[in-house]
Structures are given as structure tokens and as C-alpha cells.
Design a protein that fits this description.
It comes from Hymenobacter glaciei. The chain is of the alpha+beta class and 99 residues long. It is built from two helices and four strands.
């Protein structure tokens, strides 16, 4: 299954409606992580940009997942790119210890 990286722009400031949706959004992301639909989820330190690595059949399927994010209405500049290579430490075999 192809892997895509989704780049997201977040608002510069958060209103009460945005803040109230954060717990629901995190629950949804955690569920997708457990289901291995989302591989990685990151937000930069100033909370204006995010990156989500998502497994999906095609760009339309990934966009459908992103559109279900509880905070989607606040996201702008959503870009979806299919990855050619996606290699992580987490996806490698564990190191063998002979102890």
C-alpha cells in the first residue's frame, strides 16, 4: 500500500472552538495510529505546521481520511504527496542481543 505525507498549515492563533476539538482530534489520530493507517504525526514547536504520514490506496483515499480529522475545518494549505521511499527506525527489525 502506498504511503503519503500530508503537510498541513494550522491557524496562527487558536480560538475556544479549536481548543475544544483537540481531545477529539487526538483520540482520532491515536485510533488511526493503532490501526496503522497513520504512521507518524508531528506538529512543529510553534504549532503552525504539521506532517502526517498516512498509508492509503491513493491520494483520494488519504484526502478522505484527512477530511475526517476533527480539526480539519481549521487546516489550510493541505498538501498530499505520495512517497517513493519511507524508511524509519520503527519499521526495522529489532536489534538482537546475545546476552
Amino acid at each position: 500500500m502506498p504511503t503519503f505525507v500530508v503537510s498541513i498549515q494550522l491557524p496562527e492563533s487558536f480560538d475556544d472552538e479549536f481548543i475544544a476539538l483537540i481531545p477529539r482530534h487526538r483520540d482520532y489520530i491515536n485510533r488511526l495510529l493503532n490501526e496503522k493507517i497513520v504512521e507518524t504525526y508531528a506538529i512543529n514547536s510553534d504549532r503552525t505546521k504539521g506532517w502526517v504520514t498516512i498509508n492509503g490506496d491513493d491520494e483520494a483515499a488519504v484526502r478522505a481520511v484527512v477530511e475526517q480529522f476533527p480539526l480539519y475545518q481549521f487546516m489550510h494549505g493541505v498538501e498530499i504527496d505520495e512517497l517513493f521511499i519511507f524508511d524509519t527506525v520503527a519499521s526495522r527489525f529489532p536489534h538482537i542481543s546475545l546476552n
